[in-house]
């Protein structure tokens, strides 16, 4: 079997690996992805995000007081799950604020898509329901205006771009 035929034959299986959301959709990922569950989009509810082996990061931020504990899915893991093939993402908030995050930021030990802050779900009023957070205290390279500007809260959609 040719490589092309093999890829075509297995493509529908990859799409089936991502379950359909049963609860309210918190995040939709589109663009240059190979795994979807809603047409050409990958839609995630809270339970689906919680099933992606979340991690916990303890860090201070410039927007909160004291050390915060964030729990969420590492951005690199989320991009792997959707089969992201692009060079960047456009992350957009509920209010249409948008930031570009290059693929070079999707690294182990990099940002997470947080769904808990100090063990609690985040309301829209408290920067939720999703917030891309870096472990700022772990690496001085994360303590820059550029990285701070990429720490988008009220995240609800991501477009993977070429």
Automatic annotation (TrEMBL):
Family matches, as InterPro entries: OxRdtase_Mopterin-bd_sf
Domain of life assignment: Bacteria
Protein name: Oxidoreductase
Protein's organism: Roseivivax halodurans JCM 10272
Lineage, broadest ranks: Bacteria, Pseudomonadati, Pseudomonadota, Alphaproteobacteria, Rhodobacterales
């Amino acid at each position: 079997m040719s490589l092309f035929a093999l890829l075509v034959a297995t493509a529908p299986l990859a799409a089936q690996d991502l379950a359909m959301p049963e609860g309210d959709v918190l995040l939709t990922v589109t663009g240059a992805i190979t795994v979807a569950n809603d047409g050409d989009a990958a839609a995630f509810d809270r339970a689906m995000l919680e099933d992606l082996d979340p991690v916990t990061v303890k860090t201070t931020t410039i927007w909160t007081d004291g050390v915060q504990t964030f729990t969420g899915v590492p951005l690199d893991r989320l991009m792997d799950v959707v089969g992201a093939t692009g060079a960047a993402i456009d992350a957009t908030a509920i209010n249409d604020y948008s930031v570009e995050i290059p693929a070079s930021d999707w690294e182990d030990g990099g940002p997470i898509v947080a769904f808990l802050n100090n063990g609690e779900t985040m309301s829209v009023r408290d920067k939720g329901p999703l917030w891309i957070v870096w472990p700022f205290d772990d690496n001085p390279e994360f303590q820059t205006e550029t990285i701070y500007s990429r720490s988008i809260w009220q995240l609800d959609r991501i477009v993977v771009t070429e």
